[in-house]
Design brief:
By secondary structure, the chain is an all-alpha fold. The protein contains 10 helices and 2 strands. Helix 4 packs parallel to helix 6 and helix 6 runs antiparallel to helix 10. The protein starts with 8 loop residues before the first helix and ends in a 5-residue tail after the last helix. The N terminus is likely disordered.
């Protein structure tokens, strides 16, 4: 277009559209499109389908009611719970690995506060905490509470994943320590990139399952509190997450727990006889 010549309405619209397109950051949308939402969603839905079928099979082959202090279904009860929690945990790990390994994402670098020490000797404690969301739900005897625990884990994880995708972060690690005592930490650092820092999903999982296990087994409550008090700091002491990330991770855990408890109350209200 020649200088001094008025622009037509169509040309002005095209110029405005081009400027708008240049100013719009589509990286978040592209990350969302690259994420395998359908397969992961199918896994999460599949955990409830498989669990229900196994539970229905167990109920049809045994007594409907069991004493509260006895694990329902015996070996069959353990197996269908193991299948259910394994499918859910595998889904979360796959989702996490996909986002964690995406090198095309521009991540914001966060810094560990200077007052947090680096103690790689706590890596075994951290490693044990990784297995808590997979193993501890097997101890939940009440079927409704077990399903509520799975739902709470799924809800909390989906909220955390949304934060990871909207605000990609990374935390620089200190130099790799030497010595046999630090072998566990070196294994963790070599397999798990220091990404997806905020919020801490490693905090959400143990908190959720400890809540429902404690509700099902009241005598376990204080030992479970002790596990969290000793285990959660290890996440920061090996510099996987900052303390603020652990605190933020409590929020989706609390929301997931609230959703699970709501499911329990709804199921109980549906089971009550209606008069009138």
């Amino acid at each position: 277009m020649l200088s001094g010549q008025p622009a037509s309405a169509g040309t002005s619209t095209l110029l405005f559209s081009a400027a708008l397109a240049r100013s719009y950051d589509v990286s978040a949308t592209r990350r969302l499109m690259r994420t395998p939402l359908l397969p992961i969603g199918c896994f999460i839905v599949g955990v409830f389908v498989v669990s229900y079928l196994c539970w229905a099979l167990q109920r049809s082959s045994g007594p409907v009611t069991e004493p509260r202090n006895k694990y329902p279904g015996g070996l069959a009860g353990v197996l269908w719970r193991l299948v259910a929690i394994s499918v859910l945990c595998a889904s979360m790990i796959m989702f996490y690995a996909h986002i964690d390994d995406d090198r095309s994402v521009s991540r914001t670098t966060v810094v560990m506060p200077s007052w947090v020490p680096f103690w790689p000797a706590f890596a075994p404690v951290y490693l044990v905490m990784l297995f808590v969301p997979w193993v501890l739900p097997l101890s939940i005897r009440d079927t409704k509470r077990f399903f509520a625990c799975l739902l709470a884990l799924a809800c909390g994880f989906l909220m955390i994943v949304s934060c990871w995708m909207l605000i990609p972060t990374t935390l620089p690690r200190p130099p790799m320590p030497e010595g046999g005592w630090n072998a566990v930490y070196r294994g963790i650092a070599s397999t798990d990139a220091p990404n997806n820092v905020m919020p801490a999903g490693h905090a959400m999982g143990p908190i959720v399952v400890a809540w429902f296990a404690g509700r099902d087994r009241p005598t376990w409550r204080w030992p479970l509190v002790g596990m969290l008090v000793l285990g959660l700091p290890s996440i920061a002491l090996i510099w996987q997450h900052r303390p603020i990330d652990i605190l933020i991770g409590i929020v989706p855990a609390a929301i997931g727990i609230a959703v699970g408890e709501t499911l329990i109350r709804w199921r109980k209200s549906m089971a009550l006889p209606h008069h009138g």
